[in-house]
Inverse folding.
């Protein structure tokens, strides 16, 4: 009985190994397509807010996929920059150096986030937008996201102690 189970398991793993490339491709494709729907919704909302004509379905999806690829690149950079001071805490001498490293990482992360949101506000609406009209919204959105990234670990530490995992 054990030998039969082992053979079935080996057969399943061999089949999975052969199909892994296709499964990986399908998984990444569906993740990019599904994630890009967020930018489709943002586009539709900005179309309503600015009272603009809608893009064609092809242009809308092309923009959304481009934005999700940008999102995939920017978010890890932002998280790495935000968490860099914690990683290098043992190398930084004194409290002043640690505070300065946190401040620098906060400013750099805020700048990266600001650029990301400004790109969203400039390219998502079906209208030519200038930096003069988008900087305030991008700054508020970036500041809010940075505040969330700072306060979320505090929330988890203090209010989610009952949950495991």
């Amino acid at each position: 009985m054990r030998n039969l189970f082992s053979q079935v398991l080996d057969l399943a793993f061999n089949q999975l190994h052969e199909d892994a490339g296709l499964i990986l491709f399908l998984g990444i494709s569906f993740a990019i397509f599904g994630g890009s729907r967020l930018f489709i919704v943002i586009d539709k909302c900005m179309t309503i807010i600015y009272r603009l004509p809608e893009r064609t379905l092809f242009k809308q999806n092309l923009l959304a996929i481009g934005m999700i690829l940008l999102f995939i690149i920017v978010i890890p950079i932002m998280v790495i920059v935000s968490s860099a001071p914690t990683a290098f805490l043992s190398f930084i001498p004194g409290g002043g150096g640690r505070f300065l490293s946190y401040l620098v990482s906060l400013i750099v992360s805020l700048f990266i986030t600001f650029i990301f949101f400004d790109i969203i506000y400039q390219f998502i609406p079906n209208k030519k937008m200038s930096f003069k009209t988008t900087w305030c919204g991008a700054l508020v959105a970036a500041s809010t996201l940075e505040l969330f990234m700072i306060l979320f670990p505090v929330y988890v530490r203090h209010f989610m102690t009952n949950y495991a995992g």
